[in-house]
Design brief:
The protein has helices at about 5-35, 60-70, 75-80, and strands at about 40, 45, 50, 55, 85-95, 100-105, 140-150, 155-160, 170-175, 175-190, 195-205, 205-210, 225, 230-245, 255-265, 265-270, 280-290, 295-305, 315-325, 330-339. With about 350 residues, the chain is α+β, with helices and mostly antiparallel strands.
Length: about 350
């Protein structure tokens, strides 16, 4: 009869699970590197909608961009601390008007003078030109145009000149403008997002920060769902009460069981795949410190403690059924942290 060496088998299985853990982490690192190198190009859609160019960046890259565009990132970070959130990204938008400089422009339309105002050019009964009381006939009339915003901010638009002695009396100057919209995206540990905006108009060599009257961001509340293939590997421990299924006369039937484990689960349930609320069918292999034997375990379902305790994330607890290579069976509770 062939005697099975369960200790060696357990060591092999544990080694395989550890190898899976290493490979999984290496793959995740490679996936992160690939994501960082991927660039989503800007794209024009219908109805004037534009998809922004997007890429992953480091925290240092985000801080450098904020400095380059003169954005007070510290003020945003201070506000995000109140929501236990961090800066996730910065979006920079630019729209431009090209401006216009025209001379000898005819009137777009004319409007007759009021009937009770005499014609100013020839004085009645003299045949002589009337006095130009306001200088309108001998001087070009220039009007500077600006746009008024709350808090008294005036942003130049350009100017218009009227020269009464010309057939086409108008000269117009419209400054080209740069419209800058900067959006900072923050995210808390639950995946909720927070947006911050800054609107500026660049004109005539100056950049004016314009007050924003209203800003609103709506976000769909994430609904939990099953993820039928979300492989997760973790390291933990389970402990409980063991039962000797074939005790010798001098052995106890009830035993203790404490076993560090490496475990794997294929299914999950939650709002995200990264930090699911539940994991299912978690199988593990470890070493029972009490019985000094290789142990195997299965947890039907384990709850993420982060759903109840904010400062604990990706740590799962749940009932565990185990068996060791000596034929002992145990039931208890398991605790594992995923990677």
């Amino acid at each position: 009869m062939i005697k099975i060496n369960w200790t060696k088998i357990g060591i092999i299985i544990a080694g395989v699970l550890l190898a899976v853990l290493v490979v999984f982490n290496v793959k995740q690192c490679n996936d992160n590197d690939n994501l960082q190198s991927q660039l989503v190009e800007m794209k024009q859609l219908q109805d004037g909608i534009v998809r922004s160019q997007a890429k992953y960046a480091s925290k240092e890259d985000i801080e450098k961009l904020a400095k380059d565009i003169d954005l007070n990132l510290a003020a945003i970070e201070d506000d995000l601390e109140g929501f236990n959130a961090k800066v996730q990204g910065i979006s920079v938008l630019l729209a431009q008007s090209i401006g216009r400089d025209q001379t000898d422009v005819p009137s777009t339309s004319t409007r007759p003078k009021p009937v009770d105002v005499p014609t100013p050019f020839i004085c009645p009964g003299t045949g002589e030109p009337c006095e130009d009381s306001y200088g309108h006939l001998t001087n070009a009339q220039l009007l500077a145009l600006s746009e008024l915003f709350p808090d008294g901010l005036e942003v130049p638009i350009g100017d218009v000149t009227f020269e009464s002695w010309k057939e086409n009396p108008w000269t117009t100057l419209q400054h080209p403008r740069d419209y800058h919209v900067t959006t900072v995206l923050g995210q808390d540990e639950d995946g909720r997002h927070y947006t911050y905006h800054k609107f500026e108009i660049g004109v005539a060599g100056e950049r004016h920060t314009v007050p924003i009257t209203n800003s609103e961001f709506i976000e769909e509340y994430p609904e939990p769902s099953f993820h039928w293939w979300n492989p997760r590997v973790g390291i933990g421990v389970y402990g409980g009460v063991g039962f000797n299924t074939s005790p010798l006369p001098d052995e106890s039937v009830v035993l203790g069981a404490v076993s560090p484990t490496v475990s794997f689960s294929p299914f999950s349930y939650g709002k995200t795949k990264v930090k699911p609320d539940w994991v299912f069918a978690r199988v593990g292999v470890g070493y029972d410190l009490v019985q000094r034997s290789v142990s195997f375990s299965i947890a039907p379902a384990m709850l993420n403690l982060g759903t109840e305790i904010d400062f604990v994330q990706s740590t799962y607890i749940g009932p565990v059924v185990g068996a060791d290579t000596d034929g002992n069976v145990s039931v208890g509770m398991g605790l594992t942290t995923d990677f």
